[in-house]
């Protein structure tokens, strides 16, 4: 594993202007993503409350779906929801078109992620769900997109630009989606009156789980 001195020597071998531009790009990325996240707070409007109410009242699972980077974010959102008291699972949009859509029941809700709202597999899955009468929550940066048109509710995660210098790589958009998912999970913790004891029951292993369980035994 390279040590810090070796890393400094490697940096010294690069042109100074290139290093400076790289650091500037890193700072700009952080500032861009921070601004994208900050803008979300003003979008927690009536639609967000409708989504919150629908998920809290759901008798089945909140099934999260996505593809690519949005799919990776969707997996994390589903994991956070499940660990904080909301029954949730993830189905890959591609797999859904090859049989996994059968796991979704009439008691479920589906949260579909696509920054563009035009991801073919996600839209096709959403159409299948709509045809079956299963409500879809779209999380997208394009409220006029195909996915938004298929959805019962649309959570707006639009960003002004991506954080990378090319304005191409999913960066600010995936961060915005992740934070919107966290916002939903945190609101549901309050609505469900989810407690430290509940969290401990869901996390019996690991340092955090042991700490919470030990604290409960001492109380």
UniProtKB/TrEMBL annotation:
CDD domains: SIS_Kpsf. Pfam families: SIS. Residues 51-194 form the SIS domain. Coiled coil: none annotated. InterPro entries: GutQ/KpsF_isomerases, SIS_dom, SIS_dom_sf, SIS_Kpsf. This is SIS domain-containing protein. It comes from Kribbella koreensis.
């Amino acid at each position: 594993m390279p040590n810090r001195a070796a890393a400094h020597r490697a940096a010294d071998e690069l042109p100074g202007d290139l290093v400076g531009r790289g650091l500037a790009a890193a700072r700009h990325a952080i500032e861009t993503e921070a601004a994208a996240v900050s803008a979300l707070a003003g979008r927690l409007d009536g639609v967000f409350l409708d989504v919150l109410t629908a998920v809290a009242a759901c008798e089945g699972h909140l099934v999260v779906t996505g593809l690519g980077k949005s799919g990776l974010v969707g997996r994390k959102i589903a994991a956070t929801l499940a660990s904080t008291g909301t029954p949730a699972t993830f189905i890959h949009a591609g797999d859904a078109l090859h049989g996994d859509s059968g796991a979704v029941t009439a008691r479920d809700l589906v949260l579909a992620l696509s920054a563009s709202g035009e991801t073919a597999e996600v839209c096709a899955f959403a159409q299948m769900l709509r045809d079956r009468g299963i409500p879809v929550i779209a999380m997208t940066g394009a409220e006029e997109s195909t996915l938004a048109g298929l959805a019962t509710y649309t959570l707006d995660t639009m960003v002004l630009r991506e954080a990378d210098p090319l304005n191409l790589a999913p960066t600010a958009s995936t961060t915005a989606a992740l934070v919107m998912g966290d916002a939903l999970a945190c609101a549901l913790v309050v609505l469900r009156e989810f407690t430290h004891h509940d969290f401990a029951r869901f996390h019996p292993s690991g340092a955090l789980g042991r700490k919470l369980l030990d604290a409960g035994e001492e109380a």
